[in-house]
Amino acid sequence: MKRLISLAIIAVMLLGLLAACGKSGPLTTDDAKKVVLSDLGVKESKVDSIDVHITASADGAACYAVYVTMNGEHLEYLVDGLTGEILSVEETDEGHHH
C-alpha cells in the first residue's frame, strides 16, 4: 500500500513538472524581453539598451512596454501580458517616454 501511494505521489509530481514546462499564465518582464528580441532576431548583447515596464493597452489589458535602442534606432513595443502577442511597434525619436 505504501508503494502504491509513493507511486501516485511521484506521478502527480511528474504531471506538475510537465505542466510547468508548458507555462501558462501571465508573462514576466523577462518573457516580454525575449518576445521582442526574438522579433528583432538578435541576442540581448546586440542591443544598446532594453527596458521593460508594465503598462496597459487602450482597452485596459495588462501589457508590457518594451523600449529598445539598437544601431541608433529607438523602438517601442507593446506586448500582451498574457499571450505574448506583439500588439504594436513604433519608432520613437529617442529613448523611452513615460
Tags for this model:
single chain, 98 residues, four-stranded antiparallel beta sheet, 2 helices, 4 strands, globular
Written description of the protein model:
- The chain is α+β, with helices and mostly antiparallel strands and 98 residues long.
- Helix content is 33%, strand content 33%.
- A four-stranded antiparallel sheet has the order 1-2-3-4, with helices on one face.
- The longest helix has 20 residues, at 2-21.
- The N and C termini lie far apart (61 Å).
- 15% of the residues are buried.
- Residues 11-23 have low confidence and may be disordered.
Outline of this structure?
With 98 residues, the chain is of the alpha+beta class.
Give the class from helix and strand content and strand pairing. alpha+beta
Taking pLDDT < 50 over at least 5 consecutive residues as the criterion, the unreliable ranges are: 11-23
Please write the string of helix (H) and strand (E) elements.
HHEEEE
Assembly status: single chain
Tell me the fraction of residues in β-strands, as a range: 25-35%
Shape: globular
Number of strands: 4
Radius of gyration: 19 Å
Instruction: Kindly state the percentage of residues in helix.
Output: 25-40%
Write the layout of secondary structure elements.
Elements: H1 2-21, H2 29-40, E1 49-56, E2 62-70, E3 73-80, E4 86-92
Antiparallel strand pairs: 1-2, 2-3, 3-4
